[in-house]
Amino acid sequence: MLRRRISWVAILSILALVLAACGGDTAATSTTAAPETTTTAAPTTTAGDGGETTTTTEPELVPESDTLRLIIDTLPDFANANRYVWVEMLEERFGALGVEVEVSILEGSDSALRAVVANQADFNIGSLGAAVRLIAAADEGVKVIASDGERTTYVLLAREGIESLDDLVGGTIGIRLPGDAGDVVTRAALDAAGFDLSQVQFVEVGGTSARIAALVSGQIDLGAAHIAEATAAIAASPGLTPLMFAADVMPPWIQSGLVARDDWLETHPVMAQMVVDALVDTNRWITDNPEEFAEYTKIALPEEDMDDATRLEAIMELIRIGFYPVNGGISPEVVESFIEVEVSTGGLEADNVPPAEQWVDRTFLDDYLARNGTR
Predict the structure, then answer these.
(1) CA angle 338-343-348, nearest 5°?
(2) Fewest CB within 10 A of the end CB: N or C in the chain?
């Protein structure tokens, strides 16, 4: 795809210009760009229209390098469009200090993580399950230091005619691959709802779009779709039934994490702190300003074919389920819950789960929360 060959820096530069243009004197458009920031020791304050205030007191900022290298394991879609805001904020804050932010997309969680291990990138943001499996297989000296998605965004959609779990008995469930996020969440949600998984057959049909198409055509009976895609699909095909929001029935499950090498964290504490601060500030800004974020996503993701009401409804659902971790995620309780879900669904082997202290480092989150408080 052409977009995959376009520099993310260029995309975000264009995005910033468009948002600035939208913020003119035209009363019909209410668009707010990402929170403005400063690079001094003075507090940075952000407030949306009627929203709560987010204040970040920055430490003395002396970056340890002139480049920050970030790698992401897939091009962000609507569910994790917070990454566009986050990257823009990183560029603004680091750019003010003369630090270049390099962003790369490398498809596949394992490949992106191994790029960090091989010192081809400083950070990876992507599947937490993949990160923990990598550490379990061979302690590669990496840590998860925050999360940008603390709950699953999946809705279990059923084809027309399937209106309850009882109707699902003897049916088929579409997934992309065994053990991937959609498969894990589908199994965990159905199990939490008391459904016997032996009464259905799991078949590989592809990602969210393929699953929705298979549901509409009646080829499968159930499939997981992210909230935004599910909301749009139901609007387009009213016969589809949202049997459940997975986050409402299953324990917290960290969808994605921010991963860095131990040695990089030790030698770049200021830069690591700035990265974490920007991530939490991003999620707090979105939670406080859903309307502004909805306008933002129209520019960041123009290919998402949703009307304004559907777009805002999807964002409000993401906020409702607690997807955007306003305290940075990876609390001990949520980490424990994540492990339980992964083990129960086969994502991790019970006798090969590394202890949390081997792969979780809350140093930078704790610093942020000490300065800004918890929510």
Answers:
(1) 95
(2) N
DSSP secondary structure letter of residue 360: B
Residue from 154, 20, 34 nearest 83 by CA: 34
Dist. CA 357–CA 253, nearest whole Å: 18
User: What secondary structure does DSSP assign to 57-100, as a single string?
Assistant: EPPP---S-SEEEEEESS---STTTHHHHHHHHHHHHHHTTTPE
- At 143-194, the pLDDT tens digits run 999 999 888 889 999 999 999 999 999 999 999 888 787 898 899 899 999 9
pLDDT, position 3: 33
Helix (H, G, I), strand (E, B) or coil at 154: strand
Q: Which amino acid, residue 325?
A: P
Tokens of 245: 């929001």
**Whether the Cβ atoms of residue 323 and residue 149 lie closer than 8 Å to each other:** yes
> Which tokens hold the place of 318?
């993401």
- pLDDT tens-digit series, residues 56-101: 555 567 999 999 999 988 778 888 899 999 999 999 999 999 999 9
Strand duo 154-158 + 241-245: pairing: antiparallel
Residue 53, pLDDT > 80, answer no
Residue 228 has pLDDT above 90, yes or no: no
3-state secondary structure of 203: strand
d(CA 369, CA 43): 14
**DSSP letter at 36?**
P
Distance CA 238, CA 246 (A): 20
Rounded Cα distance, 300 and 286, in Å: 14
- β-pairing verdict for 100-105 and 67-72: parallel
Confidence band of 14 (pLDDT split at 50, 70, 90): very low
Q: Which structure tokens are listed for 151?
A: 């709950």
Taking each helix axis as running N to C, give the angle between helix 308-320 and helix 290-300, from 0 to 180 degrees, rounded to the nearest 10. Answer: 120
In the chain, the amino acid numbered 363 is: T
